[in-house]
């Protein structure tokens, strides 16, 4: 339902999904407390008994929730 309305607002021109659209989606469908738990999980991530590949996969998945890691400026850090 939400995406149908958002798509109508964007028009039929095949618009790329921007950070603004992603942010709007997250605010509407991904509660802050859940996002915060994912950030904490990312910050506390340890390899322990995971393989390097498993750790890298988990790191990549959780890094999407980190407001500090997932910024345009972070590309240059």
Secondary-structure map:
Layout: H1 2-10, H2 19-29, H3 32-43, H4 52-63
Précis, in short:
The chain is an all-alpha fold and 77 residues long.
Account of the protein in words:
This is Retrotransposon gag domain-containing protein. The protein is mainly α and 77 residues long. It is built from four helices and no strands. The chain folds into two domains: 30 residues, no CATH class; 47 residues, no CATH class. The longest helix is centred in the middle third of the chain and has 12 residues.
List keywords for this structure.
mainly alpha; 2 domains; 4 helices; Retrotrans_gag_dom
Helix content: 55-70%
- Tell me the Rg in angstroms: 16 Å
- Secondary structure tally: strands: 0
What number of domains?
A: 2
Low-confidence stretches: none
Mean pLDDT across all amino acids: 80
The largest sheet, given as strand count, sense and whether it forms a barrel, is: none
Q: What are the secondary-structure elements, in order, as H or E?
A: HHHH
Structural category is mainly alpha
């Amino acid at each position: 339902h939400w995406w149908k309305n958002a798509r109508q607002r964007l028009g039929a021109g095949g618009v790329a999904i921007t950070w603004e659209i992603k942010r709007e989606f997250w605010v509407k469908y991904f509660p802050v407390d859940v996002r915060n738990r994912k950030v904490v999980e990312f910050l506390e991530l340890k390899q322990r008994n995971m393989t390097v590949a498993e750790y890298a996969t988990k790191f990549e998945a959780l890094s999407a929730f980190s407001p500090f890691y997932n910024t345009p400026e972070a590309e240059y850090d």
